[in-house]
Amino acid sequence: MENLKIKNINCHAALAMTKNAQSGRSMIEMLGVLAIIGVLSVGGIAGYSKAMMKYRINKTIEQITLIAGNIRAFWGPQKNYDGVRCSSNFHGTCEASGCMGVSGVDADGNSTSAYNGCPIVKKAKIFPDEMITVTDGKIMSITNPFGGGVWLGTRDKAKGGDNQAFYINYTIGDNEEACIELATHDWSNAGASIININDSYVSKTPADLEIATQYCSDGDDNDIWLYFDVDANSTYWTAQLGER
């Protein structure tokens, strides 16, 4: 009987030790799981950010190609791009992000002839709906996938005649990676043959990767100009290529 009691006590002690051991392993396993979850979360956030960057880059390429096609389709019959620009007051540009040009009104909402080009741009439905914010039936802003502004303007085709070419300018902020991707993209299918990187370097498209890396800033002011329907081999443009 005494031996039986001793055996029972030993069994209880062994069971308690086993439970403690199991409890210890469970805690370690839980910490391991939490660590794995943490790593996966960080990786997931990084992966999501990378995927969103790629989406914005692809969407920008899609939008610019569509905008260029819409401009050509609307202005094609008149043989030049007169009206793509907002006004000479803005040096031929269309400040879409401020919507003054696109809506044909000034900062106070008053109609003004100073923005006489942009109502044409609005009427022509140059921009896809996803870029446009409308309030009370009025276009209040036009933004690109990076939240920046969009500018349109005209250029002479190698100084051969007024408004024979046009440009599209996208402001993409502090996205150095996007700037490089867009600068090195082959825009020939969209009809662009010249790209200006941050108003610092003019190149035929696509720009060289080394050049794009050098001139795309990691600051907050990245933007690109794409010039359409210009003769990139003309004496005018060959003189513009390189650093500005």
Topology:
Blueprint lengths: L1 H74 L24 H4 L14 H6 L8 E4 L2 E5 L7 E6 L9 E9 L2 H8 L8 E6 L3 E4 L4 H7 L6 E7 L6 H6 L1 E2 L1
Antiparallel strand pairs: 1-2, 3-4, 4-7, 5-6, 5-7, 6-8
Helix pairs in contact: 1-4
> Helix proportion of residues, in percent?
40-55%
Give the biggest beta sheet. Answer: 6 strands, antiparallel
Tell me, what's the shape?
Answer: globular
Low-confidence stretches: 3-7, 86-107, 113-117
The name of the CATH topology is TcpA-like pilin
Tell me what the CATH architecture is: 2-Layer Sandwich
Number of helices: 6
Strand adjacency order, main sheet: 3-4-7-5-6-8
Count of spatially separate domains: 1
The CATH class turns out to be Alpha Beta
Strand % is 15-25%
Order of helices and strands: HHHEEEEHEEHEHE
Explain briefly what this protein structure is.
The chain has 244 residues and is of the alpha+beta class. The protein has helices at 2-75, 100-103, 118-123, 176-183, 209-215, 235-240, and strands at 132-135, 138-142, 150-155, 165-173, 192-197, 201-204, 222-228, 242-243.
Architecture overview:
By secondary structure, the protein is α+β, with helices and mostly antiparallel strands. It has six helices and eight strands. The strands form two sheets. The protein has a six-stranded antiparallel beta sheet. Strands 1-2 form a two-stranded antiparallel sheet. Helix 1 (2-75) packs across helix 4. The longest helix is centred in the first third of the chain and has 74 residues, at 2-75. It starts with a helix and ends with a strand. Mean pLDDT is 75; it is low at 3-7, 86-107 and 113-117.
